[in-house]
Design goal:
The chain has 376 residues and is an alpha/beta fold. The chain has two domains: 198 residues, Response regulator (Rossmann fold), CATH 3.40.50.2300; 128 residues, Response regulator (Rossmann fold, 3-Layer(aba) Sandwich). Helices cover 44% and strands 19% of the residues. The protein is built from twelve helices and 16 strands. Helix 2 crosses helix 11, helix 3 packs parallel to helix 4 and helix 11 crosses helix 12. The protein binds phenylalanine. Phenylalanine (PHE) binds next to helix 11.
């Protein structure tokens, strides 16, 4: 935040009065600290890289972009407060965020009430963009949604891994985990599989042995646990300690370098669904990985790629809109079609969601490797 402010000041001082034009402010909210810190940090990096590239090409018709970033510490209340601050104090043109669906759900009504567009790069719960059958006019996302993501892993489990009996371990305080568990369950049953048991935990729990022991007794062939990386890494380690060697299966919430740092080799052989694979040879992906690595000295996860896409789509919509804010911007975002992003070709549907394929990644040697693609 400090850096952004000083950059703004420097830009203001340098430009001649005639050319002086305020930058277009982009609000960013993420968990920059806490048990989900890599989500927010990757998101921030993705947005800032996109802004740097856009500005080096002249910004929006000569006007620069600047990011205003807030840390919500992984708390929905903080995400809501930050949204209010961005729209009423900082007067941003748009809000980018959050990653976690529960936090985007806390932000969405505020964006809606203040008529400021919000794009979540990576929240997949359907209610983020559509609440009680009504599309939120000001809220969009550049990723797929969980009714699809749940189907993806159910198909992989039934058709590729040929599993018949699976158990669930879900995070009850997490809208994403709850939704995805339900969508997986429905599809897995529809495909003829059986859900043997459904256990739960709460984010931040340290001991999962009671639930795991109970699941072990049911002898599932796999356990679907669509949670966030810190919890999942501990679950994986404790499952191995209990000599449970059936694979764990998960969703995009597993995607973090910290998963491997905390979970180590306990994760070997496990699968999760995600938005992109760094193994993909497509030039769009490989070029992105190269520039991102050069700047941040790490491989971009899906969150970084989605945040980068969200910022490029923002700039693209601003370029098509009669004004880079408010209703013109809202309309231009809604009209996004065939945008070639790093995470795929992005067209927003009537519900403001992107319809894109998902990849299945298999973990070996502390690395997620490409295992397959499932199309919508
Ligand atoms: N889809 C998750 C959610 O809605 C967030 C997430 C996306 C986490 C991508 C990691 C990678 O809560």
């Amino acid at each position: 935040m400090k850096k952004t402010l000083s950059a703004l000041l420097a830009a203001a001082l340098l430009s001649s009065p005639a050319a002086a034009q305020d930058p277009i402010l982009i609000g960013v909210i993420g968990s920059l600290t806490g048990a989900e810190a890599t989500y927010g940090l990757s998101t921030r990096h993705g947005v800032e890289l996109a802004i740097e590239e856009l500005n080096s090409k002249g910004g929006l018709k000569g006007r620069m972009f600047a990011a205003k970033v807030y840390d919500d510490q992984g708390k929905p209340e903080e995400a809501a407060t930050a949204t209010t601050r961005l729209v009423s104090q900082d007067k941003v043109a748009i809000v980018l965020g959050e990653v976690a669906s529960s936090r985007s759900l806390a932000m969405a009504p505020i964006a809606e009430a203040n008529k400021v567009p919000m794009i979540t790069p990576s929240s997949t719960n359907p209610r983020v963009t559509k609440d009680g059958g009504k599309v939120r006019q000001w809220v969009f996302r550049v990723c797929f949604i969980d009714p699809f993501q749940g189907t993806v892993m159910a198909k992989w489990a039934r058709e590729s891994l040929k599993l018949e009996r699976v158990a669930i371990l879900r995070d009850v305080g997490n809208d994403y985990s709850m939704g995805l568990s339900d969508f997986f369950t429905a599809k897995f049953k529809e495909l003829g599989g059986t859900i043997l048991a459904d256990e739960s935990y709460k984010a931040g729990d340290q001991d999962f042995k009671a639930q795991l022991t109970s699941l072990k007794g049911k002898k599932p062939q796999a356990i679907y646990t669509p949670g966030y990386y810190t919890d999942v890494a501990l679950i994986a380690r404790q499952a191995r300690e209990l000599n449970m060697n059936m694979p764990l299966l998960g969703g995009d919430g597993w995607d973090s370098s910290k998963l491997y740092e905390i979970g180590g080799s306990a994760l070997d052989g496990y699968y999760f669904s995600n938005h992109y694979s760094t193994d993909d040879p497509s030039p769009a992906i490989q070029n992105f990985i190269k520039t991102y690595k050069a700047k941040y000295k790490e491989t971009p996860d899906a969150l970084a790629a989605l945040a980068y896409d969200a910022m490029l789509i923002t700039a693209d919509a601003m370029g098509r809109a009669t004004a880079p804010t408010g209703e013109p911007l809202r309309k231009a975002i809604a009209a996004t079609k065939g945008f070639k992003g790093v995470t795929g070709v992005i067209t927003l549907d009537a519900d403001h969601n992107a319809v894109k394929p998902a990849v299945i990644l298999k973990i070996t040697g502390k690395k997620p490797g490409y295992a397959g693609t499932i199309k919508p």
